[in-house]
Amino acid sequence: MPETTEKRPWLNRTVLGVGLTSLFSDWSHETATAVLPAFLAAIGAGPAWLGAIEGIADGLSSFAKLASGHFTDRLKRRKPLAVCGYAFTALATASFAFATHAYQVLFGRATAWLGRGVRSPAKKALLAADVPPGAYGRAFGLERLMDTVGAIAGPLTALWLLEATGHSYRKVFLWTLLPGLIAVASFWLLVREGPLAPKPPRSFLLGLKALPPPFRRLLAGVGIFGAGDFSHSLLILYAARMLTPSYGLARAASLAVGLYTVHNVFYAGSAYASGWISDHISHRKAVLAAGYALAAVTAMLLCTGTQSLWLLAVIFILAGLYIGTEEALEDSLAAELVPKEQHGMAFGTLAAVNAVGDFASSLFVGFLWSAFNVQIAFAASALLFVAGAILIAWLR
User: Fold this and answer.
1) pTM of the model
2) Taking each helix axis from N to C terminus, what angle separates 249-279 and 233-247, rounded to the nearest 10 degrees?
3) Rounded to whole angstroms, what are the CA distances from 109 to 99, 134, 333?
4) Which of 154, 146, 86 has the alpha carbon at shortest distance from 122?
5) What whole-number distance in Å separates Cα of residue 28 and Cα of residue 24?
6) What are phi and psi of 186, to 5 degrees?
7) pLDDT at 203
8) What is the mean pLDDT of each run of 10 residues along the chain (396 residues)?
9) What are the CA-CA distances from residue 224 to residues 79, 232, 272, 318 (Å)?
10) Separation of alpha carbons 364 and 203, rounded Å
11) Which of 147, 146, 142, 151 is nearest to 272 (CA)?
């Protein structure tokens, strides 16, 4: 790995600040995500609406990430852009409390994910700028781990708030404003930013063309995998539907949120572990390809349509393992393949490819599930996961 002996410490104020920001921001929107399927059901919206909400929000986020990635490389300071993005997401997520129809939830989610898209490339570029390249895996893995600690706290908080408020979804959504604003303060106070050298103006297309060929090959593998990588909100809906015949609607919904919490525990552990492993082997791509292969196994198990609580727990654990590996290693590989002065564009492009994949896959899987059955929906995902793993394994 390049510069593995570099003495500059990787665990610093910026890494901690980005990690805490991710923790509180994820705590905020995962609390909302955990109750969103049940809330939509309560206002008369089904899986097609959930797929559309997640897919359209991710699609809008992809354009924001792409534009922000190009824009942030031209700025003298990236930090204010990231802070504004976090504030936008916090306010829009809390707005679900005032929704009475599915289209209003769609508008709120799309607005929140627009802010998420704006902040993402700037945040990652600031993180990569303050750690040595030989520690990219650990730095991005720790950020993902802390992000997922927030994702674990989110569903647990949602369960507690539902009990405390008599299943008032609106009060749960309003509560998300608190951790969301703490995230904004953490980024502003802790993350440091060094001066950036002035850059000559360059068009968006020239910026894309300037990205190295190995990075473009990485994007191809990520894009194919992402086309099958459905929103994990659909996992919650899947578990709730499969468990309802045995446990009843209310109990099944609570069990589904509990399974999602287990998913996030394994997501947190795998994010840092896979990043650490990738810093200590000769090729990061092997760890990422293994994560993609694990996703294919997860999708094939979903095809069984199981009503077993224990098998559902295994599925959620595997999903957590692969998503943690995927997110930590994609960013680490991107940071390694691209010069630092192009990191904003690289992270924006990578995030946009992922978001386009999420847009397509959420709509695609939701449609196949509604029009046909779960077997067809998740079999299509499994095929795309296998293709993505093969492309990453062949990456030079």
Assistant:
1) 0.71
2) 140
3) 11, 36, 29
4) 86
5) 6
6) -65, -45
7) 66
8) 55 92 92 85 77 78 80 81 92 89 87 89 88 85 87 85 86 93 94 70 71 87 86 81 85 84 84 86 84 91 87 92 88 84 83 76 76 84 90 81
9) 32, 18, 24, 20
10) 33
11) 142
Record the tokens describing residue 28, joined without a space.
């905020």
Tell me the CB-side half-sphere exposure of residue 69, using CA atoms within 13 A.
Answer: 28
What is d(CA 144, CA 15) in angstroms, rounded to the nearest whole number?
Answer: 11
Q: Which residues contact 253 (CB under 8 A, 6 or more apart)?
A: 38, 240
Buried b (16+ CB within 10 A) or exposed e, 48-72: ebbbbbbbbbbbbbbebbbbbbbbb
Q: Provide the 8-state DSSP code for 305.
A: -
Contact 275, 144 (CB under 8 A): yes
CA 353 to the chain's CA centroid? 13
Within 10 A of 76 (CB to CB), how many other CB atoms are there?
10
* Three-point CA angle 187, 2, 273, nearest 5°: 60
| Residue from 208, 219, 333 nearest 279 by CA | 333
d(CA 275, CA 329) in angstroms, rounded, equals: 6
Q: Most distant CA pair in the chain: distance in Å?
A: 64
341 class by beta-carbon count within 10 Å (0-12 exposed, 13-18 middle, 19+ buried): middle
| CB proximity list for 242: less than 8 A, separation 6 or greater | 305, 306, 307, 312
DSSP H or E segment with residue 272: helix 249-279
Q: For 175, what's the count of Cα atoms within 13 Å in the CB-facing half-sphere?
A: 21
Sign of CA dihedral 26, 51, 45, 306: negative
Answer for the pair 80, 257: CB distance below 8 angstroms, yes or no: no
**For residues 121 and 129, what is the distance between their CA atoms, to the nearest angstrom?**
12
Q: What is the pLDDT of residue 17?
A: 94
Q: State the Cα–Cα distance between residues 169 and 122, nearest whole angstrom.
A: 33
